[in-house]
Design a protein that fits this description.
The structure is a single chain. The chain is mainly alpha-helical. The protein has a single domain, classed as Orthogonal Bundle (Farnesyl Diphosphate Synthase), CATH 1.10.600. Strands 1-2 form a two-stranded antiparallel ribbon. Helix 4 packs antiparallel against helix 5, helix 5 packs antiparallel against helix 6 and helix 9 packs antiparallel against helix 10. The radius of gyration is 19 Å and the shape is globular. About 2% of the residues have low confidence.
Length: 312
């Protein structure tokens, strides 16, 4: 859905790289099995991380197999399987999150995003009902968070912290569910998800900066008065881009510090080297790439899926 939670590939060991790719492949297969091919087109890095975290927190026993799929019809790809419900939960979470993201695009984004949302929303709604039936608490929490997001953004003049809060709360609900077998872990997992959600929202706001200015859409990094500059140009002035990037970076650094403080208290078992790479290296590297793109004046160019991951 977002694509901002991913490893820093140059520092991955061979086995860790294979594990990450296999987790992504396993989740893609679970989405296809449970909901059909269309939802696999929206799969992002964030949910592969959710699978790994679920496996580590609940001590599931992962196994790498070799499977064929529409993307790899001839040569078998390495695919992760495990003894628990990590893939089922991540697939349902993906469907729930994507449905609400499409609804958000219908309200808040430009024509291109609205047309895409219109094309997918009917099918996504049917899948959402199926996923919500399995995880009703999560579905309700995400729906409440998205409603708060809409109310907040309609004001068009709120702080970055306030604008990020609903997404942070949404991700808190997603990660709390990983403590389904051990309620004592839920609060800590919720704190982790909250900080990760803040990071994702801030990255997305900065990534959307130039596109939001051009379309006149709300972005908490753009002062309300700055939208008046659109009369002269659809390109956000360099000074405003630099201010937005500085604000986002300060907030992200504080958020990543708080995230790391919670992360060190989580027992992730055998997947920890992989998740260490994502938390300590991947998140910062991804933000730096988003910042670089925003400062250049270009519109959003983040890549989701393994295609983007392979090309980095």
């Amino acid at each position: 859905m977002f694509g901002y939670v991913k490893p820093y590939k140059p520092f991955l060991r061979v086995y860790e790289n294979e594990l990450y790719r296999a987790a992504y492949c396993g989740l893609c297969r679970e989405l296809n099995r449970s909901f059909g091919f269309v939802p696999t087109l929206t799969l992002s890095y964030d949910l592969a991380f959710l699978v790994l975290a679920d496996i580590g927190i609940n001590s599931y026993r992962p196994e790498i197999t070799h499977e064929r799929c529409p993307v790899h019809p001839v040569r078998k790809a390495k695919c992760l399987k495990c003894s628990g419900s990590a893939f089922e939960y991540a697939a349902c979470a993906q469907v729930i999150l994507v449905y609400h993201k499409l609804r958000d695009d219908l309200h808040d984004k430009g024509l291109k995003h609205r047309l895409r949302a219109l094309a997918l929303i009917h099918r996504a709604g049917a899948d959402y009902k199926k996923a919500a039936a399995k995880y009703p608490t999560l579905a309700q929490a995400v729906e409440r968070a998205m409603e708060r997001q809409w109310r907040t953004e309609r004001k068009r003049s709120v702080s970055l912290d306030r604008a990020a809060e609903p997404t942070a709360a949404m991700m808190r609900a997603v990660f709390r569910e990983l403590g389904r077998y051990d309620p004592d872990k839920r609060d800590l997992l919720g704190q982790f998800g909250y900080m990760l959600g803040r990071y994702v929202y801030i990255c997305d706001a900065l990534d959307d900066l130039n596109e939001d200015f051009a379309s006149g859409s709300f972005d908490p990094l753009i002062p309300k008065a700055a939208y008046k500059l659109r009369r002269n140009s659809k390109i956000l002035p360099k000074e405003q881009r630099e201010k937005a990037a500085a604000l986002a970076e300060n907030s992200v650094m504080l958020t990543l510090g708080a995230l790391a403080e919670v992360y060190v208290r989580l027992d992730l078992g055998g997947v920890k080297p992989m998740t260490d790479n994502i938390i300590y290296l991947g998140l910062r590297h991804t933000f730096d790439e988003v910042k670089k793109n925003a400062l250049s004046g270009r519109k959003k160019n983040m890549k989701t899926g393994l295609k983007g991951y392979n090309n980095e």
